[in-house]
Design brief:
The chain has 446 residues and is α/β, with parallel strands linked by helices. The protein has 14 helices and 19 strands. The chain has a 6-stranded parallel sheet with strand order 2-1-3-4-5-6, sandwiched between helices. Strands 15-16-17-19-18 form a 5-stranded mixed barrel. Strands 7-10-11 form a 3-stranded parallel sheet, with helices on both faces. Helix 8 runs parallel beside helix 9. The structure holds 5'-deoxyadenosine (5AD) and iron/sulfur cluster.
């Protein structure tokens, strides 16, 4: 009888792609995707621990399965992802949720199939979280569901130890994949007709430092030797390592999107120092200038945090000023979350919740105003959308432009996977609506 899986993912793009790998492993074992969680033979939680709310969310959802597991004891429940990789987390999970069958970590995701076999042969739970990092994998095992977009890991882990961040503890030190394996994967995806590739790493600028044979911008240049039309994106860049080599690769390769995600975190030099970010606000803005000198139309997005320990109103004002000066087209905003085991968790001067809330509201207001301003600039203009889906509720196709703006439009025929020129007739918040104003590339050529 056909067996089914269900995967719930928390956290970032990295995790979404790792869930594609988990799906690949399960499919190789004969599982197909279930239509609903209750119908699955195995439920996998791919967790995230970067902020407390993501963690609480996962704990809540795992706990909610107790009843279902009682009714369906043969159903397997597996918990993986970076939450399990924290010191003591696997034991805590087992204690809180004794009905969980398998606990695995980010370092041994690739052996999930073997853990399932082990569990099927025993009544006891299988808990296997590797402390030591696994090798950076060489070949792709993903089951992809995001056509025409595809994510490709180029490296794992992080060496930066920003004082608030749990990632280096749970994902280990930087390990770059071999450039040949990355090129094989990217070329294979382009051969299959994927139109947008996003290269993933915690700090893509230091790609290859542990290997010494290929830098990140060389990798971009290699990929862009392909002559067909496609988009190449990457995330995330750390400002401290962002420089001229990469800026030139963005400027010189048409396929590399003119959009850079460059997390700034804060605008106060005192806070940046406490965060161990290794740049000042002035240095950050100089990098932005460098980028805009080479790529005048480039858009910039960022991550910003408020309420870091000891942050004063003056520090927060410095963040607001930087947001205005850097002219971000949009920003992801976060309230600092105390992560046990990090340096910042032990700092004096943790900020009360109501102060954090007040600051995040003011920050979001500013960011939204800037985002709306950018969107308003689209009205009456044309932009190129890569169509990625059909919104059944609205009866419209949708996709993103080079700068990440979502655009909706009507079409009589399926446009998924096509580049479409859109004349923007309406702007709503951060998304656009418009009419196809020109034939697609494919039609022009045909
Ligand atoms: N609290 C709040 N936000 C955090 N981030 C990382 N760690 C924390 C934390 N402890 C944010 C940073 C990072 C993004 C991926 O998540 O802004 O760039
Ligand atoms: Fe965390 Fe800093 Fe590494 Fe990003 S660069 S993953 S914020 S430690």
């Amino acid at each position: 009888m056909q067996k089914h899986y269900w995967i719930t993912t928390y956290g970032c793009q990295m995790n979404v792609h790792e869930s594609e790998k988990i799906a690949g492993i399960l499919r190789a074992r004969g599982y197909a995707q279930a239509d609903a969680e209750e119908e699955a033979d195995i439920i996998v939680f791919n967790t995230c621990c970067i902020r407390e709310n993501a963690e609480n969310h996962a704990y809540g959802n795992i706990g909610a399965l107790k009843k279902l597991k009682k009714a369906k004891p043969e159903m397997l429940i597996a918990v993986g992802g970076c939450m399990t990789q924290q010191a003591g987390a696997a034991e805590k999970l087992r204690k809180k949720f004794p009905f969980v069958d398998i606990v695995f970590g980010t370092h041994n995701l690739s052996v999930l199939g073997e853990l399932i076999d082990r569990k099927l042969g025993t009544k006891k739970a299988v808990v296997d979280v590797w402390e030591k990092e696994g090798e950076a994998d060489t070949e792709d095992i993903s089951f992809r569901t995001s056509y025409p977009n595809a994510w490709v890991n180029i490296m794992y882990g992080c060496n930066n130890f920003c004082s608030y961040c749990i990632v280096p503890y749970v994902r280990g030190r930087e390990r770059s994949r071999e450039s040949g394996a990355i090129l094989r994967e990217v070329n294979g995806l382009l051969d299959q007709g994927y139109k947008e590739i996003t290269l993933l790493g915690q700090n893509v600028n230091s790609y290859g430092n542990d290997r010494g044979d290929c830098t990140f911008w060389q990798l971009l240049n290699e990929i862009c030797k392909r002559k067909e039309k496609f988009r190449l994106r990457f995330m995330t860049s750390n400002p401290k390592d962002f420089g001229e080599g990469l800026v030139r690769a963005i400027a010189e390769n048409d396929q590399v999107c003119d959009l850079v995600h460059l997390p700034v975190q804060a605008g106060s030099d005192r806070i940046l120092k406490l965060m161990n970010r290794k740049y000042t606000a002035k240095e950050y803005l100089e990098k932005v200038e460098l980028l805009r000198k080479y790529v005048p139309d480039c858009r910039l997005t960022t991550d910003i945090m408020v309420g870091f320990p000891t942050e004063t109103e003056e520090d927060f004002q410095a963040t607001l000023s930087l947001v205005k000066e850097a002219r971000f087209s949009t920003a992801f905003t976060f309230v600092y979350s105390r992560r046990s085991g990090t340096v910042a968790a032990g700092m004096e001067g943790q900020i009360p919740e109501e102060v954090q809330k007040d600051r995040i509201m003011r920050l979001v207001e500013l960011v939204n105003a800037q985002t709306r301003e950018f969107s308003a600039g689209y009205l009456g203009k044309t932009t190129e959308i890569l169509c990625e889906d059909f919104d059944k509720k609205r009866g419209l196709y949708l996709g993103r432009d080079e700068y990440g703006r979502m655009g909706y439009f009507a079409s009589e025929r399926d446009r998924i996977g096509e580049f479409v020129r859109l004349k923007v007739t309406k702007v709503a918040g951060i998304s656009l609506e418009g009419e196809i104003c020109e034939d697609t590339e494919e039609e022009k050529e045909g």
